[in-house]
Amino acid sequence: MDFKDKLNEYIVLLECNAKDLAQSSGLSAATLSRYRSGERIPDNEQLAILIAGMTVLANQKGITGFSPKSAEKDLATFCSNGSSFNYEKLRRNFNTLLTVLSVNVSELSRSTHYDASNISRIRNGQRHPADPKKFSRDISEFIVRRYMNESKLAIVAELIGCPAKEISNESVYCEKLSEWLISGSSGKADYTFDFLKKLDSFDINEYIRAIHFDAIKVPSVPFQFPTSKSYFGLKQMMESELDFLKATVLSKSSEPVILYSDMPMEEMVKDPEFPKQWMFGMAMMLKKGLHLHQIHNIDRSFHEMMLGLESWIPLYMTGQVAPYYLKGVQNNTFLHSLKVSGSAAHTGEAISGYHANGRYYLTKQKDEVAFYKRMANDLLKKASPLMDIYREDIQNKLNAFLMADAKARGTRRYILSAPPVYTISEKCLRSFLHTHLIQETDRQKILRYASSQREYMEAILAHSTVQNEIPVLTKEEFSKFPPVLSLSGLFYEKDLPYTYDDYSRHLQQTKEFAESHPNYTVTQTNKNAFRNIEIAIHEGEWAMISKGKSPAIHFVIRHPKLRSAIENMVVPIIEE
């Protein structure tokens, strides 16, 4: 017997139809229909709503044979079938698969006939597929139909741990992928989490000291090399990258630089010296005051994409780099590179899978530079911003963005390093600031900020739901790394650490805020994943990474692949 069979038994017992039960419980007729057909199984919260609706009907009809406790016990048995099935592994593998292949969820929904909203809830753990084996099979069949080219096969083969030639047969491909979704392990690091951890610990002042940025002097001696030169093989290709940086830094031009490449990076970064020399050359360009337009190639393996972003984050924080990307899947046969400054142009070409057999070309000839400059500007016109970067000098633009977004409906989720400033009472906040001996000017600024954040959150909660994930720390954990008051939106870089009592009080007030706001929920995590960053997610729209200090900065990401990776990142949850 399944959940659907037991539910239908209770409908007969209550002498009602599906419409009656839907109305008494407040569930939609469509949702109840899916429960009855076995397409969906309710979570604990929805089961409680369903039992409450049954109880109302039993009382109205005077049916003495119905017991809410017995009904809950009977139905919960089927809802908790997950005790013998690892739904969490399926959820994680499903998310990983969609992320690394950049699967369009709308297309997946249309093709498999699973509601997009249902897929979203399965991805974030709010719902389990009624038949996980069938679900895995349906997903696998879609992937096999849609992703059979050489590059995608290689990604899937690496993910499920088998040679690509082993899954060149469609039926074998489907069988192995379906089996992996249910029980496999990718053996992959969580690249998103690793990236965010590095961002969390990044200190631009330490970085500047490490590369001796303040001591860098931009040389004025002309760079001596032929007017044009071709480079072959990986070693020469790395040399050409560095030669372009030298030619740009040592020229008199202060024109912006446009950079694009879809060449693979992993082989180059294995060289112990190249990444250091490349980063030094980039630092030299920034020291010279040049503005860089970096067009990223997102159509590469997820690992490579995160690896590239990791190396660019320090540069983004200077405010001199604008990141872009090209929409749509790029050509999977030919590889290209195009980098142009005011005085030099660098191009590259190769066949996918044969990078080392390609050619890089560097030129300083004016007519060639002018040609490549026009081409680079045309490419930039086709590019879209990869992320919006807000520093203190444009705080007003960040505030305007958030005010406008507060009017938009949609689920919000926040991964926080401390309770939000809008849940602390003004009295407690004043006492907290007084204890820290904050000067009156800063005190008023912080109080106004807390008030504006409360207004902002109230505006969202009037029409949408908000979930906060907040760490609940033991005294021992707290003493090692005391959390600080969250003021990243104020660009206030001084640490204002809590005492354990302050933190417990603020956490309690956050719970009270949740009790008084039905659309607001708090999830307690048993780990403080980050200390200097917080993550805000407007599901399906954008994800914002906010860094509190060193420096205070906000990255608003809309690119579907990156946003989805952040949306589906999981922080350990306390079982309540």
What are the defining features of this structure?
seven-stranded mixed sheet; alpha+beta; eight-stranded mixed sheet; 24 helices; 50% helix; 576 residues
List the topology elements:
Layout: H1 3-13, H2 18-25, H3 29-37, E1 40-41, H4 44-61, H5 68-79, H6 87-101, H7 105-112, H8 116-123, E2 128-129, H9 132-146, H10 150-160, H11 170-183, H12 191-201, H13 204-210, E3 228-232, H14 233-249, E4 257-261, H15 266-269, H16 274-287, E5 292-296, H17 302-316, E6 321-325, E7 334-340, E8 345-351, E9 354-363, H18 366-382, E10 384-385, E11 387-390, H19 395-405, E12 412-415, H20 426-435, H21 440-461, E13 466-471, H22 475-480, H23 500-516, E14 520-525, E15 533-538, E16 542-547, E17 553-557, H24 560-567
Parallel strand pairs: 4-5, 5-6, 12-13, 13-14
Antiparallel strand pairs: 1-2, 3-9, 4-7, 6-10, 7-8, 8-9, 11-17, 12-15, 15-16, 16-17
Helix pairs in contact: 1-5, 2-3, 2-4, 4-5, 6-11, 6-24, 9-11, 12-17, 14-16, 20-21
Describe the structure.
The chain has 576 residues and is α+β, with helices and mostly antiparallel strands. The protein is built from 24 helices and 17 strands. It has an 8-stranded mixed sheet with strand order 3-9-8-7-4-5-6-10, sandwiched between helices.
